[in-house]
Amino acid sequence: MMNTIKIHVLRTGEVRVSPYLPFGGDDCSLLKASGMTTPKSKWIWLPVFSFLIEHPKGLILFDTGWHREMSPEGVYDKKAQIRSLGSWFLYQINQGRIARGEAIDEQLATHDTDVQPHIIEL
Fold this sequence. Notes:
Layout: E1 6-17, H1 20-23, H2 30-34, E2 44-55, E3 58-62, H3 78-85, H4 88-93, E4 95-97, H5 104-109
Antiparallel strand pairs: 1-2, 1-4, 2-3
């Protein structure tokens, strides 16, 4: 049994949003945060992370990041994203991309520990 806690930070793609969403502050309106009034040229790409925690009582996966269907070929794919998000409106608020090998299942399959998705408990 393991006596230590290990946290693995796994990059699972990127999300493109209006800069007002993460940095708009308390007085930022929902409309401004949504990016509907900000030109796409001013939007920013931010990393998306998942966290695999090895705990003495088991494995915990916090957030799974983007799913491979978001960018099936590992590049930005507008049509695939609208399908994955299930909404043209959600696509207007944020876009994602996930390079080959960055999907959480792809990373867990090659992780340096003996971690497989079916043994994650939480």
